[in-house]
Amino acid sequence: MLASLLLGTLVGVALGTVSGLVPGVHVNTMAALLLSLSPVLAVTLGAEALAAALVAALVTHTFLDCVPSTFLGVPDADTAVMVLPAHALCMEGRGAEAVRISALGSASAVAWALPLALLFLVILPLMQSAIDWGIGLLLLVVACSLVVFSESPEWSAAVFLVSGLLGLFVFRYSFLAWHGGTSVLMPLLSGLFGVAVILSASGGRMPAQGGAVSYPERREVLRCSFTGSVAGAVVGWLPGLSNATANALLASVIDYGQDRRGYLLATSAANTANAFLGLSALYALGRTRNGVMVALATFDLPPLSLLLLVAAIAATIAYLLTLFCSGAAALFARVKLGPLHTAVVLSVVVLSFLLCGPFGLFVLAAATLVGTVPGLVQVRRVSCMGAVMVPVILSSLGLVVF
């Protein structure tokens, strides 16, 4: 049994590496692939090993998805706002530093997430009804704080509401996408946080990458990783929320313009902690928080302690892989940014079409137009998170049903 679990973990790490490094490919895609092959894999590997592969893929993805975000500026659906400080560091020649700090944040989250998962498993089911009721109000408070404390509250509110209307439209008509569901997040967030930024970027060449990596002080690492882990734990437990929501929550307490390394630490920690707490929510409440959990729910689940051990092993391997991939910074040194930006935009367009069809192209175009506004009016791009937060707030308050 241990041998099959280890094999399943290695398979999951391999799949999570692919989904993390290839822009636009989400770990849910790998979960769907494993699920489609489950009749064969369950016989050869066993149901426990298949469950281990799903968990390992999810955890590995949360480590490695920072690589394309940093070097190419293409956001994953879970790390949209993180692209901004990570890619900015890359354009200063500190891409390897951004990736290594992100890896450190994810690794730190494992230490925080394991006790939080056990704590939540015991305490929060008793409070779940009250928690469900308060989700919309909590996010409403966060949204108001993002607007009120922005550089220009009027413009920030306008961007937040317009992007929120776009999000409502996209989720309401997501059935028009070829694969439906959350696949529409790819063109939506890529337009708001990826293509819009790339189109407004200057040309020239990418700065030489390298130099010594400067890590934050230990106290700063503990503070930011704990804050991020708590945010990731909260959205991992609560229904209807995602890592994108956690990033917006963190942007209200950590200024990603002034403290880029701290924000990278926190968002990476939130990304990884979300995976652990989503697993706890599945066991405690039977609720699925992402495509991986939906796939897991179709199996006879092994003990939670076993899957948490698998997640910890996958995290260790993924951390080492992420450090190795940070060396890719040298490959981009002195690359002409014009052709690179063109290739990235074209790849996003193609992926949007493959995932969502013509509807995906429409969403990408609309999101790109909205995403250009923050730069024109000089407000933080996190205001565009209204595309995710407004639908979740209205749905949580029972005002909108998708």
UniProtKB/TrEMBL annotation:
Signal peptide region: none
InterPro entries the record matches: DUF112_TM
UniProt-listed Pfam families: TctA
Assigned keywords, A-Z: Membrane, Transmembrane, Transmembrane helix
Keyword Zinc: no
Domain DUF112 stretches: 6-385
Membrane is among the record's keywords: yes
Transmembrane segments: 30-59, 101-124, 130-150, 157-178, 184-201, 262-285, 306-332, 344-370, 382-401
PANTHER family listed in its UniProt record: INTEGRAL MEMBRANE PROTEIN
Protein name: DUF112 domain-containing protein
Organism in which the protein naturally occurs: Methanofollis formosanus
